[in-house]
Every structure is written in structure tokens, then in C-alpha cells.
């Protein structure tokens, strides 16, 4: 096990291990389409109805996850495993971004076959009743092959164990999953070793171009094979390597008795085969499968125990700890035990860290909202390394990336939320990285126009010249050089938030001119608000509005949603938005209308803050009501338990925050909106041996409305709690009753907004 990775988890008291939390995790959750009302109504495409998670075996934030494979491609929006499938075609070392509609890369698959060697049409039936799925372990029986397959893992490596149920030949196919047929794989029969790689390719900007690095693997067999060779489709060759052929790989054959086990161990790397071998030598030094499994189980127990929940409803615990599991898959560890990693946006040269870890696969448009803020509370040491990784990317590539995945620029989504994440870390006092370098890169994104080559390559903000010229992105700018084209209003709203985020860092660093300009730009959301309809709307350069206006239909100027849904994306200045609408009561009415029309779509991120916005009005009790409804209607246990793409853990992180009664509507401010928790008692284990206990007092299970709150025994009158208060720990007592109250409704109780702050 990687000690450095383990040390990033908070050291916790022994008492937390008295309850097995791993048993509550359901790795199959999200592998089947959602059946929620919101998903059925608002999902535009079939992929949006899937959570797109996989039953991943590995450690938190691991380099490689290990999953049963029911789909053999690395195709966009096709995860390696679908619950509805009936055939397994192997066991994959995967770099699928959990819950995404992206694509796998640099993966490899191992398939066990008994009897006669088959190198084509070898997928075999399986049943969910014969699966065991946990974060640390997977097991399935393959009856047609008379074989039991098991997997466990470390941070960068995996171990598989195959047990035959009869005397037979066992063949293992090792397949680098290159859809382009660009892989290399070798076998050394005498040593019982296999090694190779699968080159990664870019997606979105530069789509299809080589990313400059590969997924490397190094495999050791516990026993020496009696037969080896290579294959391509159904053709078998008596040679020890094969290169650049589709549907190719190597095979190793063994003679086993009934009940005999064959174990293999696999090292992975993004740097080289040599580093994959070093990773394996460092992390798995035994053939004892159970010891590796036990160690992985302990690591997950420690990670899950950072939030302990108590209550009578076991289903709620299953949903909660499954959400914790999903919220700790990414960003992905990208550096080796030696500290090596491929350079950002080119792969070459291979670089080496002096200390710490390098991370990638930041689904930033999604996770800056709740998943990363959750880590800022629980694991600030890891957050420092995440920010350091982003700064390194900017320095190596020349521009701070917008949505860094596949260790490349992508410009996949809108906004500039790497800036929002770094700023939210800085404002919370998480600053163990090069702040000066970080600010320089963030400022470059906000103020500078990249040259044409850089822009086409995915560097810089999309449509920034228009945004700077008009204070919004007009309809004439179709944003052609982007995966998401147009979407001008959504881009304007999100850039306004990012400008606000950067303004706070500028002010803190005494960059007064920058601060003044950015603070003004943070109000640009006003420029796309049409007071005639009370919602945001597409606008042309001369100031006239786009027609026709459809409040509740997907429009070209909105990202993955409707004008009504996106109007509420002003997380930094909700009071200012209320003023545009006509006041706090008008904002409350607009929120009421959204929910009454069933236009709230929980399955996509831009609306995740909406349920908590009643705390900015005189009716916080409506937040308590709406959040309880969403928690019960949009989350469940079982394979279809998520309402849309989990998006690297954001959907799950929303549930975690809602279930403990807190939510970071504006992560940069550090203010967490208070609502009524799902559980009777919650304990957050915090760094420095501190803990925050949230205790609910209620007479019966249907008490959901807040009557009063005490913090450390003193009456607490705010309807939000700041980050610094959370991090100090203490006891937050929430008194609940069956009917709505006016708790938290006064103007002085409400969270801050840009328009109400004095600077």
C-alpha cells in the first residue's frame, strides 16, 4: 500500500472502526438508468439518464480502478460495465472517469477462459446473484468456464485471483484496449511476465490526436505458464509480442486442478513500463490476495469514517456511504511511487516531483460545486496537492486549463472553474502551493487572449474577446472553437462567477486594479437578465433579445438546460439577482414557480444550488422542505439509484452535503447553507483531531423543519455556517419540528451576496 496516499487521510480515533461502514457501499449503484421523475422529463439523451458509474475496485483517488467489463470499447459515453448486460468479457484496469459521459483511456483487460483457447467471441454469461461488490473487492462466478474470478487493489496496482471448479486448462488473455489498434504487448513465458501499453488520445479540443502518454502495465503470474503466444481476432501466433493490431493481445495457458488458484498482480503507470513495474514492486510484495484485500478494506473504512452518520434507516446509510464512495474516485492519482509523471499537454519530458503527488482528471465544471468543497473540509492536505497539480499544468502548458482530463487541455465545458476552485481553496486558508504562480495563471485566463494556435488547442477562455467587449457574450458569437458551441448566456453567467472568485484573491494579494475590474465584471450576469420576462435570455450585440423566448425549453444559448433553470446560476450574488426580479419575495416566488412547474432538474449540475436559495429569502423552511423531497425522490439504493450522470462524484457530493444539513451554494465564500439533516447524528472527523457533531433533536421521524439551532450550547441565529467555524469543530444542535417555522428568515440571518458586501 502507498503510505504517502494513506497519510493524506486524516488520522482517526480507533473507536470509529467499531461499525463496518464498507458494508453499506453499493458499487453497482448508478450502473443502471435512473427512473426518477426529473431524469425522465429533463434528460435530453439516453446517456443523461445513466449515472455512468462502474463497480470500481481500488483505493480512494487511485491511479487505476478495476472493474468487470461488459463493454469492450473505449468509446465516449460507454462505461465498461452496464448492469443490464448479461455477458462479461474480462476484468479491466480502467481510467474511466466515474459517472461521466466521456471515454476510457489507456486501459487493459484480462479475460480468463477454460478448456480450449478462444481469442474471439469469448464473452461469458454471469448473474448479479453471483457477484460480490465492495470498494475493495469484487468476485463473480463464471459458470460456463467453471471459474471464480476475484479482484482487489492498491493505489496503482491490482491483484486478481482465479479459482477453477474442475481440473482444466486456464488461459488468460491480456488485451490492451486500443480502439485504434495502436497498442503494444509482450510476454516472457520463462519469467511469467507480460508488459505493454495503450496510447491515450485527446478528446474535445484536439480530438483524436495523441495525448503524448500511454496507459502502461506490467503483469506477473504466480505460476509459470505452460503455453504462451499472441493473437489477433481469431488468429493465434507462436510469438512473444504483437504491435499495432486491433483486437490483439497475448495469452498464457496453465494447467490447474479443481480448487487450485492462480493469482496475478498488475502494476500500472502513465510514465513507462519500468515505472509500472516499480509501482508493483512498491505496493504489492506478496501473493497473499487476502492481505491486499484486507488492507484496501481498512483504507476504505478509514476514508468513509470521516463522516459517521447515525439513524434507524439502513437504506439511508446505504445511499450515504455509496455517495461517499463515489465522491472519492477522482481526481485521479497520476504520479508514480517515484514521483514521476508525464508532462501536461505533451507527455514529454517525463517529470519528477520532489514531494507530494500529481493528480489529473478534474471534471471541473461539475466538481467545483460540492465534491471539491467536501474535500476542502475533510482533506485539505490533499486539496493542496490538487491545486499544486493544477498550477503545474498551467506552467507546463502555458495556460491554466479549463477542464483538465487525459492530462491535456480539453475546453470540454463552459466557465473557468479551475479558477473558482483555486480561489475557494485560497479564501479558506488552504494555501500550501505557489500562490503567486497560481494567481498569474488565473489572471492570464481572465484578461489575456491566446493566439489562434493556442486557442484551437483548448487554451484560454472561450469567447473572451466578446465577453470583454460587451460585458456578455452576444448571440453573434457562436463560439465555434469549442465542444459546446454557442451557450452564450450560460457562459456569461459562469464567467461572472469566476471573475468574482478571482477578485477575492486579487484583493487579498493587494492587486487593487485587478480587483476593481473583476468585481465590476462579476456583475455581468445583469447584462443577460431580461426584466420583461424575469429570466435570463439570449442577447445580440446591439442589445435586442433573442426570439422566440421559451422559458422551459432547451435553447442554444443555454448549457444543458433551460433559461428558467439557468437564471438561478448567480451563486455569488443571489441578493442582486433578487433585486433584478423585484425583491426577495419575487425571488421566492420564482423559486416556487420552478418547483411547481416541475422544472427543477436535479440530474444536471447548474441547478444544484437552487434548492438552498430559499435561505436568501424570508422562507428558509422551503429549503428544508424541497431538499427533503429531493433527497427522498432523486436518490435511492440499488443499481438505478442516481438521477443523472454522477460526474466524478458531484451528484453524490450533493447528497452528502444535503444529508448532513449543509451546502456550499457559493464555495468561494465558504458559507454553507443550513437545512435539516437526514440523520439523527452526524460526526465529521476533521484534521487536527477535531470533530464537528451535528445532533438533531426531534419528537418523531416526520420532524423536518428547523425550530432553532445551538452551536456549542449558544443560540445560533444565522441560516448558514462559515467554513472556518466548521473546521474548528464543536457541537451543532438542530431542533426540528413537524410544521414550518420562521427560523433563519430575518435579513440579518441570511448569507452574504456580492451586492450586499462592503469592500
From TrEMBL:
It comes from the Bacteria. Pfam families: Glyco_hydro_92 (PF07971), Glyco_hydro_92N (PF17678). SUPFAM superfamilies: Six-hairpin glycosidases (SSF48208). GO terms for molecular function: hydrolase activity, acting on glycosyl bonds. InterPro entries: 6-hairpin_glycosidase_sf (IPR008928), GH-type_carb-bd (IPR014718), GH92_a_mannosidase_put (IPR005887), GH92_N (IPR041371), Glyco_hydro_92 (IPR012939), PNGase (IPR050883). Its cofactor is Ca(2+). Residues 275-737 form the Glycosyl hydrolase family domain. Residues 24-269 form the Glycosyl hydrolase family 92 N-terminal domain. It is an enzyme of class 3 (hydrolase). Monomer. This is GH92 family glycosyl hydrolase. It comes from Niastella soli. The lineage of its organism: Bacteria, Pseudomonadati, Bacteroidota, Chitinophagia, Chitinophagales.
Amino acid at each position: 500500500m502507498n503510505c504517502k496516499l494513506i497519510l493524506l487521510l486524516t488520522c482517526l480515533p480507533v473507536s470509529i472502526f467499531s461499525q463496518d461502514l464498507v458494508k453499506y457501499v453499493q458499487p453497482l449503484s448508478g450502473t443502471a438508468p435512473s427512473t426518477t421523475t426529473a431524469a425522465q422529463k429533463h434528460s435530453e439523451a439516453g446517456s443523461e439518464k445513466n449515472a455512468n458509474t462502474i463497480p470500481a475496485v481500488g483505493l480512494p483517488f487511485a491511479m487505476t480502478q478495476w472493474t468487470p467489463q461488459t463493454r469492450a470499447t473505449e468509446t465516449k459515453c460507454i462505461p465498461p460495465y452496464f448492469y443490464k448486460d448479461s455477458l462479461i468479457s474480462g476484468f479491466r484496469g480502467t481510467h474511466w472517469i466515474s459517472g461521466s459521459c466521456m471515454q476510457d483511456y489507456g486501459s487493459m483487460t484480462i479475460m480468463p477462459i477454460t478448456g480450449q483457447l478462444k481469442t474471439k467471441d469469448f464473452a461469458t454469461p454471469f448473474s448479479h446473484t453471483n457477484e460480490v461488490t465492495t470498494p475493495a473487492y469484487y468476485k463473480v462466478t463464471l459458470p460456463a468456464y467453471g471459474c471464480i474470478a476475484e479482484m482487489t487493489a492498491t493505489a496503482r496496482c491490482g491483484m486478481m485471483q482465479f479459482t477453477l471448479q474442475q481440473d482444466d486448462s486456464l488461459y488468460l488473455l491480456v488485451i490492451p484496449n486500443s480502439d485504434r489498434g495502436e497498442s503494444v504487448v509482450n510476454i516472457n513465458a520463462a519469467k511469467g511476465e507480460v508488459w505493454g501499453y495503450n496510447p491515450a488520445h485527446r478528446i474535445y479540443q484536439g480530438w483524436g490526436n495523441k495525448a503524448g502518454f500511454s496507459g502502461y502495465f506490467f503483469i506477473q503470474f504466480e505460476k509459470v505458464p505452460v503455453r504462451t503466444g499472441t493473437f489477433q481476432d481469431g488468429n493465434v501466433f507462436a510469438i512473444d509480442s504483437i504491435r499495432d493490431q486491433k483486437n490483439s493481445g497475448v495469452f498464457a495457458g496453465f494447467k490447474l486442478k479443481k480448487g487450485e488458484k492462480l493469482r496475478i498482480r498488475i502494476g500500472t503507470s502513465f510514465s513507462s513500463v519500468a515505472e509500472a513495474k516499480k509501482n508493483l514492486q512498491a505496493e504489492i510484495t506478496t501473493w497473499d490476495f487476502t492481505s491486499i484485500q484486507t488492507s484496501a478494506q481498512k483504507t476504505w473504512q478509514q476514508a468513509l469514517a470521516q463522516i459517521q452518520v447515525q439513524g434507524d434507516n439502513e437504506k439511508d446509510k446505504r445511499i450515504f456511504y455509496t455517495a461517499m464512495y463515489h465522491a472519492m474516485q477522482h481526481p485521479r492519482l497520476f504520479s508514480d511511487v517515484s514521483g514521476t509523471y508525464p508532462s501536461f499537454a505533451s507527455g514529454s519530458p517525463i517529470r519528477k516531483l520532489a514531494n507530494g503527488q500529481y493528480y489529473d482528471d478534474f471534471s471541473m465544471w461539475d466538481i467545483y460545486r460540492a465534491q471539491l468543497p467536501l474535500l476542502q473540509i475533510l482533506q485539505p492536505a490533499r486539496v493542496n496537492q490538487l491545486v499544486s497539480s493544477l498550477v503545474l499544468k498551467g506552467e507546463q502548458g502555458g495556460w491554466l486549463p479549463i477542464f483538465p482530463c487525459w492530462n491535456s487541455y480539453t475546453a470540454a465545458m463552459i466557465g473557468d472553474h479551475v479558477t473558482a476552485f483555486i480561489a475557494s481553496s485560497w479564501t479558506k486558508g488552504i494555501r500550501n502551493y505557489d500562490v503567486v504562480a497560481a494567481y498569474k495563471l488565473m489572471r492570464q485566463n481572465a484578461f489575456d487572449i491566446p493566439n489562434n494556435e493556442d486557442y484551437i488547442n483548448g487554451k484560454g477562455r472561450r469567447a473572451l474577446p466578446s465577453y470583454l467587449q460587451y460585458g456578455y457574450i452576444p448571440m453573434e458569437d457562436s463560439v465555434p472553437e469549442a465542444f459546446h458551441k454557442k451557450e452564450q448566456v450560460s457562459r456569461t453567467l459562469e464567467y461572472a462567477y469566476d471573475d468574482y472568485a478571482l477578485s477575492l484573491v486579487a484583493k487579498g494579494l493587494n492587486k487593487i486594479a485587478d480587483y476593481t475590474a473583476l468585481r465590476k465584471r462579476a456583475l455581468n450576469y445583469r447584462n443577460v437578465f431580461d426584466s420583461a420576462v424575469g429570466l435570463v435570455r439570449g442577447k445580440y450585440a446591439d442589445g435586442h433579445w433573442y426570439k422566440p423566448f421559451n422559458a422551459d425549453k432547451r435553447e442554444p444559448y443555454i448549457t444543458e438546460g433551460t433559461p428558467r433553470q439557468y437564471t438561478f446560476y448567480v451563486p455569488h450574488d443571489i441578493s442582486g439577482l433578487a433585486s433584478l426580479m423585484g425583491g426577495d419575495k419575487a425571488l421566492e416566488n420564482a423559486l416556487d414557480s420552478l418547483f411547481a412547474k416541475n422544472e427543477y432538474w436535479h440530474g444536471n449540475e447548474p441547478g444544484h444550488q437552487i434548492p438552498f436559495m430559499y435561505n436568501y429569502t424570508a422562507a428558509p423552511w422551503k429549503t428544508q422542505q424541497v431538499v427533503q423531497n429531493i433527497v427522498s425522490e432523486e436518490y435511492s439504493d440499488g443499481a438505478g439509484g442516481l438521477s443523472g450522470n454522477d460526474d466524478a462524484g458531484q451528484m453524490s457530493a450533493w447528497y452528502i452535503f444535503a444529508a448532513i444539513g449543509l451546502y456550499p451554494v457559493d464555495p468561494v465564500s465558504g458559507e454553507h447553507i443550513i437545512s435539516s439533516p437526514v440523520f439523527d447524528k452526524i460526526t465529521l472527523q476533521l484534521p487536527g483531531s477535531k470533530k464537528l457533531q451535528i445532533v438533531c433533536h426531534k419528537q418523531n421521524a416526520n420532524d423536518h423543519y428547523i425550530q432553532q439551532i445551538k452551536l456549542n450550547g449558544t443560540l445560533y441565529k444565522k441560516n448558514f455556517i462559515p467554513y472556518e467555524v466548521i473546521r474548528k469543530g464543536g457541537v451543532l444542535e438542530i431542533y426540528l419540528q413537524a410544521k414550518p417555522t420562521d427560523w433563519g428568515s430575518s435579513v440579518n440571518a441570511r448569507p452574504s451576496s456580492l451586492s450586499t458586501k462592503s469592500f
